[in-house]
Amino acid sequence: MTDAPSLSAQSQNAGLAHTPLAALHATRGARMVPFAGYEMPVQYQGIIAEHQHTREAAGLFDVSHMGQAFLLGPDHGTTALALEALVPADIVNLSPGRQRYTQLLNAEGGILDDLMVTRSADAAEDGALMLIVNASTKEADYAHISEHLPANVKLMRADHRALLALQGPKAVDVLMRLAPEVADMTFMSARSLRIGGIECHVSRTGYTGEDGFEISLNATKAQLLAERLLAQSEVKLVGLGARDSLRLEAGLCLYGHDIDATTSPIEAGLAWSIQKRRREEGGFPGEERVRRELRDGPSRLRVGLLPEGRAPAREGTDIRATDGAPIGKVTSGGFGPTVGGPIAMGYVNRRFSEAGSPVVLVVRGKDLVAKVVPLPFVPHRYHRART
Asked: Tell me: the pLDDT tens digits for 236-255?
């Protein structure tokens, strides 16, 4: 287990917040780092070991730094339309007990943040939508959303809740022992249930490309639930380091890196998250740009990049055509433990976005040969409904 200073020794960074699992991280020997205003575990036993364990068994992640909130209105239609004025997804037709990925857009069609939206499965909560937003942007997100809501829809922060992610092929086996009902859940479904006697809101989702669950619960019960999950032989704690390498292999965007206020959902390869009704009707910020790019194609596209050799291409690396012309930049890059070598994502001029296109990455002043490849680097293993 990686050595780490005590929590008290690490908390010298003034102003850093702590999640409800801070004491658990300290006792489990986590290496803590500042992240999005929080002191967060980057690793316990080592990034590669934690990455591989998640791919093979079940990794437990503390993601309580993420923002949780509820939109509350008189009925689903009213609440959904209020949110649709800010995002391009079809929220009106979101079924009870289902979750949807979307983006908050600015007037130019740039992405202010990406988020998950869940409609309650409980008919008594018909006007409620649960939102999960990124930690680094949650304060701005809450202010932006609140400013644009009609008088009969309110944003209620849920800062009293913690969020755990149990990810990997054995996550369902682990959770079934404590909550047998999860066996019937499919990818992007959500419901409230008791896990080991603890009231939780569970969604079958995550950000690793693996099957798994995200569990929202009262912060006062978070450590108890984490310890019950860790008592299962398949489960180990996993830090932010492996979370990043897992999502990179899965070809998933990290806000502030692969997407930001200058990138549109179409450039980012997220057109799939805009349903047919919204494409046709519009009514969301930046719709002119988004619908034009849907029709004509964007000038640049996010692509996967596979460098030759062993040198990783990090964020900010210049991407050039084989004749030396600049065509884009890397937005995320590093070693892919499952791939067994360096991988990267970035934006390139659309003319160079076809799979197999040769490119050059300028790493430490040296030209490295690479090629454009389809995303994801590692196939997703989500548990989808059989058709």
From this structure: 999 999 999 999 999 999 99
Domain 7-64+160-249: assigned CATH number: 3.30.1360.120
CATH number of 299-373: 2.40.30.110
Strands 366-373 and 358-363: antiparallel
Preceding peptide of 376 cis, ω within 30°:
yes
Partner residues linked to 202 by β-bridges: 191, 215
Domain ranges of the chain: 7-64+160-249, 299-373
User: pLDDT per residue over 298-334, tens digit each?
Assistant: 999 999 999 999 999 999 999 999 999 999 999 999 9
The token pair that represents 263 in the structure block: 């990138």
Per-residue b or e along 216-233, where b marks 16 or more CB atoms closer than 10 Å to that residue's CB = bbebebbbebbebbeebe
Q: What are phi and psi of 357, to 5 degrees?
A: -65, 130
Please give the Cα distance from 195 to 177 (Å, whole number): 9
Band of the pLDDT at 14, cuts 50, 70, 90? low
pLDDT at residue 4 in the model: 30
- Spell out the SS3 assignment of the chain: CCCCCCHHHHCCCCCCECCCCHHHHHHCCCEEEEECCEEEEEECCCHHHHHHHHHHCEEEEECCCCEEEEEECCCHHHHHHHHHCCCCCCCCCCCCCEEEEEEEECCCCCEEEEEEEEECCCHHHCCEEEEEECHHHHHHHHHHHHHCCCCCCEEEECCCEEEEEEECCCHHHHHHHHCHHHHHCCCCEEEEEEECCEEEEEECCCCCCCCEEEEEEEHHHHHHHHHHHHCCCCEEECCHHHHHHHHHHCCCCCECCCECCCCCCCCCCCHHHCCHHHHHHCCCCCHHHHHHHHHHCCCEEEEEEEECCCCCCCCCCEEECCCCCEEEEEEEEEEECCCCEEEEEEEEEHHHCCCCCEEEEEECCEEEEEEEECCCCCCCCCCCCCC
| Cα–Cα distance for residue pair 294/299, rounded to 1 Å | 11
